[in-house]
Write a sequence for this structure.
């Protein structure tokens, strides 16, 4: 067993644990904003770790495809979370009293006053 195998195993186990913790948070957190955090950050980290653990075992030609998958995930997950969060906010699914800063609420109020 080489150090590359150990590194790969640590990355795969760490990624699986991160995904598991994200799934548990997704099921147990009370509101939409907390669930979005659980759905994006640990899941993205877990996927990246799993991809790294897999890529170190492959030739570079095949690992380069995994790099593209990781980059695509890192680009799309925050954008989708932002869109879902805005939709939930506009549908009154977010407890606005629990927000520390409410920039979207201020912007919506300014737009209503202009109209």
């Amino acid at each position: 067993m080489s150090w590359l195998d150990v590194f790969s195993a640590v990355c795969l186990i760490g990624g699986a644990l991160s995904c598991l913790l994200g799934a548990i948070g997704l099921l147990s957190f009370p509101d939409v904003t907390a669930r979005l955090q659980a759905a994006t950050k640990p899941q993205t980290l877990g996927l990246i770790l799993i991809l790294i653990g897999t890529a170190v075992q492959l030739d570079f030609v095949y690992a380069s495809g995994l790099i593209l998958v990781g980059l695509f995930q890192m680009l799309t997950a925050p954008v989708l979370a932002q869109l879902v969060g805005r939709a939930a906010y506009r549908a009154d699914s977010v407890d606005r009293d629990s927000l520390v800063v409410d920039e979207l609420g201020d912007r919506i109020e300014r737009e209503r006053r202009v109209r």
The two ends are 68 Å apart (CA to CA).
